[in-house]
Amino acid sequence: xxxxxxVTPIISPRKRSPSLQFLFDHDIxxxxxxxxxxxxINWRQHxxxxxxxxxxxxxxxxxTFSDPVESPRxxxxxxxKLNQLLYLVKTSKKPLDCEVLVSLMSMIxxxxxxxxxxxxxxxxxxxxxxxxxxxxxxxxxxIHLQVVYDILLRLITTTEPKRLQDHVSHPFLLxxxxxxxxxxxxxxxxxxxxxxxxxxxxxxxxSIMRKSMNDVLLSYIFETERHCGIGELLEIYGSIINGxxxxxxxxxxxxxxxxxxxxxxxxxxxxxxxxxxxxxxQFVQKEPVLGGIVVxxxxxxxxxxxxxxxxxxxxxxxxxxxxxxxxQYRKLALPLSTHITRCLNSLNSQVAERALYVWNNEQFVKxxxxxxxxxxxxxxxxxxxxxxxxxxxxIRQLTENVxxxxxxxxxxxxxxxxxxxxRRESTARKEGVRRKEKWERIESIAAKxxxx
Length: 452
Hints:
The chain is mainly alpha-helical. The protein has helices at residues 20-29, 37-59, 72-91, 98-112, 142-158, 161-164, 170-178, 185-201, 206-224, 230-242, 250-260, 273-286, 291-300, 307-321, 329-344, 349-357, 362-369, 372-389, 393-409, 411-450.
């Protein structure tokens, strides 16, 4: 029936009954014949479009996977049809028809933009950096969503951005950002790929996409401290920062100061520190003069009781030192060495060990050498305290090794620092004795007056 519509009726000029040979020859010569290549292609294209519209219509029905009325057979059928649709989108050699594109984007939105289930855990923080149990909640809807994300990624990759401009709009992008709250890591990974591809291809959306991500990160830092997708968002930002040109724009520097540096504060930093550290290091590599701002910012948010955060931040500072502008070494030597010394005096052996290993870094030692007179009194006192009082024998042994290295730098200055430390300790002991005697006199006087 479909072929008959494309067959052109043939009428004899003499209105006589045409011969079979005449009809055959005319059919071969006729450019509008359904057997011609163009007619065949048009028919096939029309057939594919009709099939796609039929598949899209079926796939627009949403399964919750929680309603007992839903049929598992129908759920499997939808997945099958979604895969068929993905195949047709991938194998299509011509741009999709406008009607198909509109229906397809509508189907994608209907499947993706859904209310997320409430968080399965009360807190989105963890004591273990590799404990992602709260985020590893597998969504039963994923068997459908996986294919939908593949279709969307294929569309964004192969379709001209101008054709999708009306569909990939600001509300669409905001809805995608909301989905980063999903507890299923597979969905967040697919979202990351889709969102990043949109940023690459839709250049006219870049500014608003960065602003929207900034809003999510700021809300996490200063309001909720709860979000599953911070790591994925920072991965996207890492790639974006890598593409920034030098000199950096003021907008990008403000993002570093107002967003990335304060992101070292939340308790959940353990979950995304790797991505955060990469973003920060990218800024310092592009403009080493920003290193001083970053180091002071990290020291401002230094944790007091969270030893795991301390270990991570020591490692981040050690990497930053290698990219900082050497002109800032002297300014940063004292605050950095003061924090490192506090860490090596920590009763937590992991913190103390990590702080002592910093002295193996050549750039850190080079920084200390530029401000030896300021740094040595602090460092030497910390080393001597470890040697006398630390409970761990391995920490005392590591301290002994570092002490030998420091003595080789400037033996005379090291000896002066020890004498000064002993003088301060002696003064403190005398002051303690005088304070004790004073309190004893006060107690004695108070006891006498008590009986008056």
